[in-house]
Write a structure and sequence with these properties.
By secondary structure, the protein is an alpha/beta fold. It folds into 2 domains: 138 residues, 3-Layer(aba) Sandwich (Glutaredoxin), CATH 3.40.30; 124 residues, no CATH class. It has 12 helices and 5 strands. The protein has a 5-stranded mixed β-sheet with strand order 1-2-3-5-4, with helices on both faces. A hairpin with a 3-residue loop joins strand 1 and strand 2. Helix 4 packs across helix 5 and helix 5 packs across helix 9. The longest helix has 24 residues.
Length: 271
Protein backbone atom coordinates (compact mmCIF):
# COMPACT_ATOMS: atom_id res chain seq x y z
CA UNK A 1 0.00 0.00 0.00
CA UNK A 2 1.33 3.44 -0.91
CA UNK A 3 2.23 5.94 1.81
CA UNK A 4 -0.40 8.37 0.50
CA UNK A 5 -3.10 5.68 0.67
CA UNK A 6 -2.08 4.78 4.22
CA UNK A 7 -2.27 8.43 5.28
CA UNK A 8 -5.72 8.82 3.69
CA UNK A 9 -7.04 5.76 5.53
CA UNK A 10 -5.57 7.08 8.79
CA UNK A 11 -7.17 10.48 8.24
CA UNK A 12 -10.56 8.89 7.46
CA UNK A 13 -10.36 6.73 10.59
CA UNK A 14 -9.42 9.76 12.70
CA UNK A 15 -12.28 11.80 11.23
CA UNK A 16 -14.78 9.02 11.97
CA UNK A 17 -13.55 8.72 15.55
CA UNK A 18 -13.67 12.46 16.12
CA UNK A 19 -17.18 12.61 14.68
CA UNK A 20 -18.32 10.11 17.31
CA UNK A 21 -16.52 12.18 19.97
CA UNK A 22 -18.32 15.29 18.77
CA UNK A 23 -21.72 13.63 18.95
CA UNK A 24 -21.08 12.40 22.49
CA UNK A 25 -19.51 15.65 23.66
CA UNK A 26 -22.23 17.79 22.06
CA UNK A 27 -24.89 16.41 24.40
CA UNK A 28 -25.85 19.21 26.78
CA UNK A 29 -23.40 21.73 25.35
CA UNK A 30 -23.99 25.42 24.89
CA UNK A 31 -23.57 26.83 21.42
CA UNK A 32 -22.87 30.22 19.90
CA UNK A 33 -23.39 30.97 16.21
CA UNK A 34 -22.08 33.58 13.81
CA UNK A 35 -22.31 33.96 10.03
CA UNK A 36 -19.74 31.26 9.32
CA UNK A 37 -19.13 29.42 12.61
CA UNK A 38 -20.86 27.41 15.33
CA UNK A 39 -18.99 27.07 18.63
CA UNK A 40 -19.91 24.19 20.94
CA UNK A 41 -18.63 24.53 24.48
CA UNK A 42 -19.03 23.58 28.13
CA UNK A 43 -17.38 25.05 31.22
CA UNK A 44 -15.66 27.66 29.05
CA UNK A 45 -16.13 31.40 29.76
CA UNK A 46 -18.66 32.98 27.40
CA UNK A 47 -16.25 35.88 26.87
CA UNK A 48 -13.61 33.47 25.54
CA UNK A 49 -16.15 31.90 23.19
CA UNK A 50 -17.13 35.34 21.93
CA UNK A 51 -13.49 36.10 21.23
CA UNK A 52 -13.19 32.86 19.25
CA UNK A 53 -16.14 33.99 17.13
CA UNK A 54 -14.63 37.44 16.56
CA UNK A 55 -11.21 36.11 15.57
CA UNK A 56 -12.63 33.32 13.41
CA UNK A 57 -14.78 35.72 11.39
CA UNK A 58 -11.82 38.10 11.01
CA UNK A 59 -9.51 35.33 9.83
CA UNK A 60 -12.15 34.03 7.42
CA UNK A 61 -12.49 37.47 5.84
CA UNK A 62 -8.75 38.10 5.83
CA UNK A 63 -7.71 34.83 4.20
CA UNK A 64 -10.44 34.76 1.57
CA UNK A 65 -9.61 38.33 0.55
CA UNK A 66 -5.81 38.06 0.68
CA UNK A 67 -5.71 34.83 -1.32
CA UNK A 68 -8.47 35.77 -3.76
CA UNK A 69 -11.12 33.32 -2.57
CA UNK A 70 -13.96 35.85 -2.23
CA UNK A 71 -15.79 34.55 -5.29
CA UNK A 72 -16.84 31.48 -3.34
CA UNK A 73 -19.91 31.28 -1.10
CA UNK A 74 -18.79 29.13 1.80
CA UNK A 75 -19.80 28.33 5.32
CA UNK A 76 -23.27 29.79 5.76
CA UNK A 77 -26.25 28.21 7.48
CA UNK A 78 -25.79 24.41 7.58
CA UNK A 79 -22.32 24.71 6.00
CA UNK A 80 -20.83 26.63 8.90
CA UNK A 81 -17.60 25.45 10.49
CA UNK A 82 -18.02 23.71 13.83
CA UNK A 83 -15.52 24.36 16.62
CA UNK A 84 -15.68 22.16 19.72
CA UNK A 85 -14.00 23.79 22.71
CA UNK A 86 -13.12 21.55 25.65
CA UNK A 87 -12.66 23.16 29.08
CA UNK A 88 -9.01 22.12 29.42
CA UNK A 89 -6.24 19.97 27.96
CA UNK A 90 -7.14 16.96 30.08
CA UNK A 91 -10.71 16.84 28.77
CA UNK A 92 -9.53 17.47 25.21
CA UNK A 93 -6.97 14.65 25.27
CA UNK A 94 -9.39 12.24 26.95
CA UNK A 95 -12.09 12.76 24.33
CA UNK A 96 -10.00 13.08 21.17
CA UNK A 97 -7.20 10.60 22.03
CA UNK A 98 -4.64 12.98 20.56
CA UNK A 99 -0.94 12.90 21.58
CA UNK A 100 -0.04 14.85 24.71
CA UNK A 101 1.58 17.69 22.74
CA UNK A 102 -1.56 18.34 20.67
CA UNK A 103 -3.52 21.54 21.32
CA UNK A 104 -5.96 21.24 18.45
CA UNK A 105 -7.00 18.99 15.59
CA UNK A 106 -9.17 19.49 12.53
CA UNK A 107 -11.09 17.27 10.12
CA UNK A 108 -10.97 19.37 6.98
CA UNK A 109 -13.58 17.39 5.06
CA UNK A 110 -16.04 17.88 7.92
CA UNK A 111 -15.08 21.51 8.52
CA UNK A 112 -14.67 20.79 12.22
CA UNK A 113 -12.03 21.80 14.77
CA UNK A 114 -11.49 20.36 18.26
CA UNK A 115 -9.45 22.38 20.73
CA UNK A 116 -9.24 23.90 24.23
CA UNK A 117 -8.18 27.26 25.74
CA UNK A 118 -4.44 27.52 26.25
CA UNK A 119 -2.11 30.14 27.68
CA UNK A 120 -0.52 31.35 24.46
CA UNK A 121 -0.77 30.90 20.72
CA UNK A 122 -4.46 30.04 20.52
CA UNK A 123 -5.67 33.13 18.68
CA UNK A 124 -2.54 34.04 16.73
CA UNK A 125 -1.33 30.56 15.76
CA UNK A 126 -3.59 27.55 16.28
CA UNK A 127 -6.90 29.10 15.22
CA UNK A 128 -5.71 30.80 11.99
CA UNK A 129 -3.64 27.75 11.04
CA UNK A 130 -6.49 25.25 11.30
CA UNK A 131 -8.92 27.63 9.58
CA UNK A 132 -6.35 28.08 6.81
CA UNK A 133 -6.31 24.32 6.24
CA UNK A 134 -10.09 24.14 6.06
CA UNK A 135 -10.48 27.13 3.73
CA UNK A 136 -7.76 25.86 1.41
CA UNK A 137 -9.36 22.42 1.18
CA UNK A 138 -12.73 24.01 0.49
CA UNK A 139 -11.13 25.74 -2.48
CA UNK A 140 -9.02 22.93 -3.99
CA UNK A 141 -10.95 19.84 -2.91
CA UNK A 142 -9.41 16.58 -1.73
CA UNK A 143 -6.68 16.22 -4.36
CA UNK A 144 -3.06 15.56 -3.46
CA UNK A 145 -0.83 18.63 -3.24
CA UNK A 146 2.69 19.05 -1.83
CA UNK A 147 2.84 19.50 1.92
CA UNK A 148 4.63 22.85 1.53
CA UNK A 149 1.63 24.23 -0.37
CA UNK A 150 -0.87 22.99 2.19
CA UNK A 151 1.15 24.22 5.17
CA UNK A 152 2.16 27.44 3.44
CA UNK A 153 -1.45 28.50 2.96
CA UNK A 154 -2.39 27.34 6.48
CA UNK A 155 0.48 29.40 7.92
CA UNK A 156 -0.30 32.51 5.88
CA UNK A 157 -2.52 34.09 8.55
CA UNK A 158 0.03 33.47 11.30
CA UNK A 159 1.57 36.90 11.08
CA UNK A 160 4.67 36.09 13.12
CA UNK A 161 5.37 33.08 10.93
CA UNK A 162 4.69 34.91 7.65
CA UNK A 163 6.55 38.13 8.42
CA UNK A 164 9.38 36.28 10.13
CA UNK A 165 9.89 33.84 7.28
CA UNK A 166 12.21 36.13 5.30
CA UNK A 167 14.77 36.25 8.10
CA UNK A 168 14.80 32.47 8.56
CA UNK A 169 14.91 31.69 4.84
CA UNK A 170 17.60 34.27 4.03
CA UNK A 171 19.78 32.98 6.86
CA UNK A 172 19.37 29.45 5.49
CA UNK A 173 20.31 30.64 2.02
CA UNK A 174 23.37 32.38 3.41
CA UNK A 175 24.60 29.44 5.48
CA UNK A 176 23.85 26.82 2.79
CA UNK A 177 21.08 25.05 4.73
CA UNK A 178 18.36 26.28 2.34
CA UNK A 179 15.98 23.60 1.03
CA UNK A 180 15.47 23.97 -2.76
CA UNK A 181 11.85 23.79 -3.91
CA UNK A 182 12.38 20.46 -5.67
CA UNK A 183 13.51 18.89 -2.38
CA UNK A 184 10.83 20.75 -0.42
CA UNK A 185 8.17 19.20 -2.67
CA UNK A 186 9.36 15.69 -1.84
CA UNK A 187 8.83 16.19 1.91
CA UNK A 188 5.59 14.64 3.14
CA UNK A 189 4.20 14.49 6.67
CA UNK A 190 6.09 11.30 7.53
CA UNK A 191 9.40 12.65 6.25
CA UNK A 192 8.88 15.97 8.03
CA UNK A 193 8.64 14.30 11.44
CA UNK A 194 12.16 12.97 11.10
CA UNK A 195 13.80 16.22 10.04
CA UNK A 196 15.73 18.61 12.26
CA UNK A 197 14.81 21.63 10.12
CA UNK A 198 11.04 21.62 10.61
CA UNK A 199 10.97 25.36 11.35
CA UNK A 200 12.81 26.03 8.09
CA UNK A 201 10.31 23.88 6.21
CA UNK A 202 7.41 25.95 7.52
CA UNK A 203 9.25 29.23 6.93
CA UNK A 204 10.03 28.33 3.32
CA UNK A 205 6.48 27.06 2.75
CA UNK A 206 4.78 30.29 3.81
CA UNK A 207 7.48 32.33 2.10
CA UNK A 208 6.62 30.77 -1.26
CA UNK A 209 2.93 31.60 -0.80
CA UNK A 210 3.84 35.18 0.13
CA UNK A 211 6.05 35.40 -2.97
CA UNK A 212 3.26 34.21 -5.27
CA UNK A 213 0.65 36.53 -3.76
CA UNK A 214 2.88 39.61 -3.44
CA UNK A 215 4.52 39.23 -6.86
CA UNK A 216 1.61 38.09 -9.01
CA UNK A 217 -1.55 39.02 -7.10
CA UNK A 218 -4.55 37.26 -5.60
CA UNK A 219 -6.43 36.62 -8.86
CA UNK A 220 -3.57 34.54 -10.22
CA UNK A 221 -3.35 32.55 -6.99
CA UNK A 222 -7.08 31.93 -7.13
CA UNK A 223 -6.79 30.70 -10.74
CA UNK A 224 -3.95 28.41 -9.66
CA UNK A 225 -6.12 26.91 -6.93
CA UNK A 226 -9.09 26.45 -9.28
CA UNK A 227 -6.95 24.33 -11.58
CA UNK A 228 -5.84 22.24 -8.63
CA UNK A 229 -9.51 21.68 -7.82
CA UNK A 230 -9.94 20.46 -11.41
CA UNK A 231 -7.24 17.86 -10.60
CA UNK A 232 -4.69 19.41 -12.93
CA UNK A 233 -1.04 18.73 -12.18
CA UNK A 234 0.97 21.28 -10.24
CA UNK A 235 2.90 22.22 -13.39
CA UNK A 236 -0.30 22.65 -15.43
CA UNK A 237 -1.97 24.72 -12.70
CA UNK A 238 1.07 27.00 -12.43
CA UNK A 239 1.33 27.39 -16.21
CA UNK A 240 -2.36 28.29 -16.45
CA UNK A 241 -2.27 30.90 -13.69
CA UNK A 242 1.17 32.48 -14.17
CA UNK A 243 2.60 33.74 -17.45
CA UNK A 244 6.18 33.66 -16.14
CA UNK A 245 5.89 30.26 -14.47
CA UNK A 246 5.51 27.21 -16.68
CA UNK A 247 6.47 24.59 -14.13
CA UNK A 248 7.42 23.93 -10.53
CA UNK A 249 11.05 24.21 -11.61
CA UNK A 250 10.39 27.73 -12.93
CA UNK A 251 8.74 28.71 -9.65
CA UNK A 252 11.72 27.41 -7.70
CA UNK A 253 14.18 29.38 -9.84
CA UNK A 254 12.20 32.63 -9.66
CA UNK A 255 11.56 32.36 -5.93
CA UNK A 256 15.19 31.55 -5.17
CA UNK A 257 16.38 34.41 -7.41
CA UNK A 258 14.14 36.84 -5.52
CA UNK A 259 15.62 35.63 -2.23
CA UNK A 260 19.17 36.07 -3.52
CA UNK A 261 18.31 39.63 -4.55
CA UNK A 262 17.05 40.30 -1.03
CA UNK A 263 20.21 38.78 0.42
CA UNK A 264 22.38 41.03 -1.77
CA UNK A 265 20.39 44.11 -0.75
CA UNK A 266 20.74 43.12 2.88
CA UNK A 267 24.52 42.75 2.50
CA UNK A 268 24.81 46.19 0.89
CA UNK A 269 22.86 47.74 3.76
CA UNK A 270 25.27 46.19 6.26
CA UNK A 271 28.27 47.52 4.33
Amino acid sequence: MRTGDTMKITIIALACYLTVCSFVYAQGLSEKKSDHFIIYYKDVPAEFVGTIIDYSERYYDELTIKLGFTRYDYWTWDKRVKIYVYPDQEAYLKETKQPSWSSGVAAYDQKTIWTFPRESGFFDSLLPHELGHIIFREVIGAGDVPLWLEEGVASYLEQAKRFGSDKIVLEALDNKSFIPLKELTQIDANALRGRADINLFYAESVNIISYLVDKFGTDAFNDFCKKLKDRRSLDDALAYAYFDIRSLSDLGELWEASLKDKLKSKSKMIL
